[in-house]
Design brief:
It is a single chain. The protein has ten helices and twelve strands. With 475 residues, it is an alpha+beta fold. It has a domain of 229 residues: paralog of FGE (formylglycine-generating enzyme) (Alpha-Beta Complex), CATH 3.90.1580. Strands 1-4-12-7 form a four-stranded antiparallel β-sheet. Strands 10-9-8-11 form a four-stranded mixed β-sheet. Helix 2 packs across helix 4. The longest helix has 24 residues. The chain is globular, with a radius of gyration of 26 Å.
């Protein structure tokens, strides 16, 4: 009897430790004659390349200023050989158009939640948006929308954080045009998202940017590992105001006429393919979380569910510099050479070429400030604007001694980096002189600061041995 009890206890432990339970194991050894053989045949796994991203194959390189250091500033660090693993990286900086998708998702999520709360119980099964009852939570609509798990959660009063019982019905269209509001209660809910009439400028009806907050959570892995424990107490919950600070165009330059950019740069269609700016480090991380959620939600919506995607995140400083070098050893600039112009005399990046002159091409007279992405040549990995246009946030905290105490294998400060105020910024921008665009040059900014010359791009890890790499031509 004791032996049987121990066997049953061991089986329970195996089931309880599997994530999400998984499929039933069935009779042990029924198809494998008692041999330990994986249920699924081993197949070569190829990482799916996310849209707009390129693979950067892992390797070793000398990190830091390996060429002439024109700055001789304390921000530099002694060169150090390090190794980084493979990863996908956005081929361009995140654009205004891409970031507006994030803003629209936050806006719509808040609107749908407010409408669902106002709709209450007994919601309509209709998905036309003809009345506020159409916007009730999916669990309140009955029919095929409700799963047994949703019914169970509803009976338990939901759970802390996200609850399936409060799943929004995204099939119902939202009406933002006042003439299309279906009823008075709908109008009351939607109008609560706009700036109050007595606070409007020129009576312009605008969304209240302070209400556009993205709530998410992430795990403090470093603290959990240190404490040899892992539970919900290590989850960090954040609610971030995500609308870019458009005032940076005026605030960063006290004696310049930049009001047109303040008024139009983020929302005007003409700037759709320009890099987003005025975004803090925390807002950039929130965007990464949204990008991961968006892909996960799509995978879960498929009949044949795909594997959970790797998280999107900001690159570490070591990853960013390795990618910027484009596979060229000791590259001074992303294009490899030490010159800022090609053999035809054309500048290779968007920066300030001369004192007081912010234009790279006097004949065209374009790009006084930022430039649309993909207007300058890409580097050996197929990455655009790794020098100039806008500087870029990295995940890494800034310290003059970082290179001395960090690991030589995937150097990083772990996710304790969020505690550090100073963050490393790389790449140089449209307002910087040429030598600040060097691949080994480092700069920093406070993580709660937004600037007209700082943007970001995202990366995604690649499982070892799961991708084939092909070096792109820089022509």
């Amino acid at each position: 009897m004791k032996r049987i009890f121990l066997i049953l206890l061991s089986s329970a432990a195996v089931v309880s430790c599997s994530k999400g339970g998984g499929k039933s194991a069935g009779r042990p050894g029924a198809k494998t004659k008692g041999e330990l053989i994986p249920a699924k045949s081993a197949k070569t796994f190829t990482a799916e390349r996310p849209f707009g991203m390129v693979p950067v194959p892992g390797g070793s390189y000398v990190m830091g200023m390996t060429d002439v250091d024109f700055t001789n500033m304390p921000e530099k660090a002694n060169p150090k050989t390090v190794t980084v693993s493979s990863f996908f990286m956005d081929e361009t900086e995140v654009t205004n158009g891409e970031y507006r998708e994030f803003i629209n998702y936050v806006r719509d999520s808040i609107a749908r939640t407010l409408l669902a709360e106002a709709a209450g119980t007994g919601g309509s099964e209709s998905s036309t948006g003809a009345s506020i009852s159409d916007y009730a939570y999916a669990s309140q609509k009955g029919g095929d929308n409700v799963t047994p798990y949703q019914s169970y959660l509803e009976s338990q009063g939901g759970r802390d954080g996200y609850s399936e019982a409060k799943k929004l019905d995204w099939r119902v269209p939202l009406h933002w045009n006042t003439s299309a509001y279906p009823d008075e209660q709908y109008a009351e809910v939607l109008e609560s998202m706009y700036i109050a009439p007595d606070k409007r400028i020129n009576n312009e009806r605008l969304l209240d940017a302070n209400k556009l907050q993205y709530a998410y959570q992430w795990e403090d892995v470093a603290s959990a590992v240190r404490d040899k424990n892992r539970d919900a107490s290590y989850l960090k919950k954040e609610s971030i105001k995500v609308y870019p600070d458009t005032t940076v165009w005026v605030r960063d330059f006290n004696y310049a006429y930049n009001e047109p950019l303040f008024d139009q740069y983020f929302w005007h269609q003409a700037y759709k393919n320009y890099p987003v700016v005025g975004v803090t480090w925390d807002q950039a991380r929130a965007f990464c979380n949204y990008k991961t959620k968006r892909k996960s939600d799509f995978n879960n919506s498929l009949k044949k569910k795909k594997q959970k995607p790797m998280n999107f995140r900001l690159p570490t400083e070591a990853e960013w510099e390795f990618a910027a070098r484009g596979g060229v050893e000791n590259a001074t600039y992303p294009w490899g050479g030490p010159n800022l112009q090609d053999d035809r005399g054309c500048y290779l990046a968007n920066f300030k070429p001369k004192r007081g002159n912010y234009i790279e091409d006097e004949k065209k007279g374009d790009y006084v400030y930022t430039a649309p992405v993909k207007k300058f040549p890409r580097n050996g990995y197929g990455l655009y604007d790794m020098a100039g246009n806008v500087s870029e946030w990295t995940e890494s905290p800034f310290s003059n001694s970082t290179y001395q105490f960090s690991s030589t294998l995937n150097p990083n400060m772990s996710n304790q980096a969020y505690r550090e105020i100073k963050k490393t910024v790389r790449g140089g921008s449209w307002k910087d002189a040429g030598y600040l665009l060097m691949t080994g040059y480092r700069d920093w900014e406070r993580k709660d600061s937004a600037r007209s010359y700082i943007g970001f791009r995202t990366v995604q890890d690649i499982a070892a041995g799961s991708a084939k790499f092909k070096k792109k031509s820089t022509k």
